[in-house]
Design brief:
This protein is mostly helical. The protein has helices at 14-38, 43-63.
Length: 65
């Protein structure tokens, strides 16, 4: 195992550092998703309404003879 350049020379546990990074990313992505979903009139709602409007115009155009 590799050791850090510290006085106590404890071995560096690479599995622990990878797990910590995964937890940090999970928290960051969770907060981002929560911010996008929880805002009234926010980006998610605007995206869904834009897709719905586009689909409505598309189906109207396809229904014309």
């Amino acid at each position: 195992m590799k050791t850090l350049g510290r006085l106590d020379q404890r071995p560096l546990n690479l599995q622990y550092t990878r797990g910590q990074a995964m937890v940090e990313w999970l928290i960051a992505v969770s907060l981002l998703c929560l911010a996008v979903v929880s805002v009234q009139g926010g980006p998610l709602e605007q995206t869904v309404s834009a897709i719905g409007a586009h689909y409505q115009r598309y189906t109207h155009a396809m229904a014309r003879p």
